[in-house]
Amino acid sequence: MNSKGSGRRRFLKDGAALAGLTVGAVRAASAIPGADASELRPNDPHAYGERSRFEDSTIRIGSLGRWTGISDFGFRTPLQESVGVITPPSLHYIVSHGYDPPDIDPRQHRLLIHGMVDRPLILTMDDLGRLPSVSRTHFLECNANSAPFSGPAGAARVAPTATIQQTHGLTSCSEWTGVPVSLLLEKVGVQTGAAWLIAEGSEAGEHTKSIPLEKAMDDLLVAYGQNGEALRPEQGYPLRLLVPGWEGINNVKWLRRIKV
Predict the structure, then answer these.
(1) Which residues of the chain have pLDDT under 70?
(2) Each residue of 177-233: pLDDT tens digit?
(3) CB neighbourhood size of 184 (10 A)
(4) What distance in Å separates the CA atoms of residue 240 and residue 181, rounded to the nearest whole number?
(5) 130 near 179, Cβ under 8 Å?
(6) How many angstroms from the chain centroid is the CA of residue 177?
(7) What CA–CA distance (Å, rounded) separates 154 from 165?
(8) Is 191 in contact with 145 (CB distance < 8 Å)?
(9) What distance in Å separates the CA atoms of residue 14 and residue 217, rounded to the nearest whole number?
């Protein structure tokens, strides 16, 4: 009895001490100017897939010499350092037509499907998550990939020191997960005579593209996943259109509306 009682007292004492350390850590974190304890990331390589400190591949702006320097030219995938065919999301090239990714709360995001349909729909992310999904491996490529850069007066030039990343880095390959557009169109009921879709993004520029209905019914995907995780903000979080085999500009990011 005494042994059990003393063990219980030690357990309670140690537990109280541990609780004190935890509270102290939270207080210490909250003392950091501008810091939120819930946002501080632990120094733990297992917290979220930290790579080795000896690996330093990064996406870089598409700059050759002094001619560029704005993000609209794209951040480029380091193809010369790629291992295998799948591009990690953090190394996937980025072209966003000069606009920063919108800060979208997925709980508030909606996808409207309307136009020449029998049953217009407004879908939440939860609604989409309950529909049958597919995962497919596709590459994306900007139509400017491998094109020479232009200097003053349109003088095309490629620096002799240009890397594969700089000249060809506007292409990446991922496994994308989402709902086939054909399934969504079956749900809304496309009317006779409809021939095109208009897809619209949520960014400040409201990027839109027109896609033939035949292509939409073939292999278009409304994607919310990339390589086993949610899309990243620069890749269209929480929802993007995936148009396999077509120029990257057709793959509308931050998708919010499809009009038939």
Answers:
(1) 1-46, 61-73, 147-160
(2) 999 999 999 999 999 999 999 999 999 889 999 999 999 999 999 999 999 999 999
(3) 20
(4) 11
(5) no
(6) 12
(7) 22
(8) no
(9) 63
Which residues lie below 8 Å from residue 28, measured CB to CB, with a gap of 6+? none
Judge whether 142 and 171 are in contact, CB under 8 Å. Answer: yes
The structure tokens listed for 121 are 């729909």
Phi, then psi, of 45 in degrees rounded to 5? -65, -15
Rg of the chain on CA atoms, in Å: 24
User: Using CA atoms, how far apart are residues 164 and 159, in angstroms rounded to an integer?
Assistant: 12
Q: In the 8-state DSSP scheme, what is residue 190?
A: B
Token duo for residue 171: 């292409």
Per-residue DSSP letter, 77: -
The answer to whether the peptide bond before residue 120 is cis (omega within 30 degrees of 0) is no
8 burial (CB, 10 Å; 0-12 / 13-18 / 19+) is exposed
Cα 64 from Cα 160, distance rounded (Å): 9
**Could you tell me how many helices (H) and strands (E) the chain has, helices first?**
5, 14
Tokens matching residue 107: 């709980």
Which of 217, 205, 206 is CA-nearest to residue 243?
A: 217
Taking every pair of Cα atoms in the chain, the longest distance, rounded to a whole number of angstroms, is: 92
Q: Locate 190 and state its tokens.
A: 């496309």
| Residues β-bridged to residue 28 | none
